[in-house]
């Protein structure tokens, strides 16, 4: 009996503590759901790796690696920890750091990873500290292959609409050059034959070969990008398709049209819709990661094509200001903050960064037009996830260690101020940068991440 | 057109040197800064005090001796020693006054020369901001907390920061921590002022204690800002100081009267002292806030 009484007394004593913990959990939690929309090779994985490393070293060792980030003051950070998001594999930050350690860039992402980063802040006020000893800033991130993101607009299209737009894209711009073989194949293919499994596989395989080559040549609008990755959940026998010539698509009773329409529907229903629900879940903040240099590496046409791709991508997200009801009860978020981020800014010399930012601003014109009159706060940033280069002798030069281990100085001619100023017969080749041996301080000294987080947490 | 047909706008050359290594970023090591003792060793103030007392004593001895030996001319050595001591005393007092004047000018120069951060944000280039902040920081005393913060701020400068961001960085890493530290010093000193007022047995001791703690508050806070305003500090502060002492004396009179009217019990005395302690603490806070307003 005495024991029971003691237990009861102890429980009563602990009740205020438990209540306060509960209250802290309810009121002291500030959750930021980020979606990072980046095309393939835009540097998402490196950005995640860098972000996690910087926050870890800032919190645990007190390194001032994000000097402009005042919304998460070091003096108030109590601890930081990570946990996987339910239904996702944990982001392999250790593997990525190990890859950097062995002199290799992190592997491109081939599946979805999710993680939650929780930064626990101590309260300053005495009463607030008693009531809620800490508050938490929760970041939810999902990393996924960039190839998937270009597929989202397909959800709003019928097969015929998509097939027509695919041909339109291949008939002009840089795609035209790389699709010659594929177009010849279609021209020669006999669509009077029955669409057997083997024949469908042959057409889809040829289309995938075109997509792969286009990707190698810097094309960003690749649909369906999912076909470029091997995935057990995506059966190309039941979900494979390609554009069909208008002679076929104009006849609703054509067996090939019926077969590809069925596969297209299965692709949307069984692959894309669940993918959107899981990976591209509602977020309140969006980082659109763009490798402008990749466009400059190829041609002016590539830059225009990148602009078009970004514009299409913006159609697939819901923008605007969420109210308390929709956010808390209906769990429906709208994106109210968008950061357009030019990645790998360290590859560009200091003298050309203003021009790079100006090009980035122009590339996002179409995407920004999609916001319409909705309340969306946006800004443009240049970010380097790692400071892999050093300043050159002149302001228009950078120095870096190339894949052969040589230390090289690259001098740049001035960047065009506008897209139309880019000469059609010139390009800025991507630098063959190797992982620096001192990658850790170079991650911690990287530029722009503090400015970006400051904006997003505001 | 194939890729190879494009003209490259990047020219590259291999260098003979190897890639330099980056250092880890600095750490925020606020706790490493230690408040230095306000004075160490034999200061001129102490010399003045000692020689003053010595002169007084010497004069007393002299008077005693002159009482015995009426004729001064008959004792030249004694008069020489007394004259020397008096000379040292006058010299020491002059040096103390000079130092006070220099310190006074330094505080005024700092207040006059510094530009509000809002104005710095309007400067067109980062170089202009750097120049203005460097000039401001050049007046921070060595080993001061402000200088410590400024050195840390220097390590956080990046080549991609704009003028406005540079000012924000300064505000966050120098101005705000310095003000927070000054506020914490003020809080501590005000608590001491209150405690001393509470335990002071009479009005004279209380006034002297409040005056002493007020001067110490000014010195300690100015040290955080990297300035040594001298004992008197700034004229505006002296005004506040005098007003504080006057207010404290008036408050003392008022509480005495109230206690006399009520009764002379121990609890009434306790209440009186508590009220005076609160007043002393509050007046010290007032003084400190005036200083923060002047220096921020």
From TrEMBL, chain A:
InterPro entries: YcjX-like. It comes from the Bacteria. Pfam families: DUF463. This is YcjX family protein. It comes from Alteromonas halophila.
Automatic annotation (TrEMBL), chain B:
Its main location: membrane. It comes from the Bacteria. Pfam families: DUF697 (PF05128). Residues 1-28 are annotated as: Disordered. The chain crosses the membrane at residues 44-65, 77-98, 196-215. It is found in: Cell inner membrane. The keyword Cell inner membrane applies. Belongs to the UPF0283 family. It is a multi-pass membrane protein. The keyword Cell membrane applies. GO terms for cellular component: plasma membrane. Keywords: Cell inner membrane, Cell membrane, Membrane, Transmembrane, Transmembrane helix. Residues 1-13 have a biased composition (Polar residues). This is DUF697 domain-containing protein.
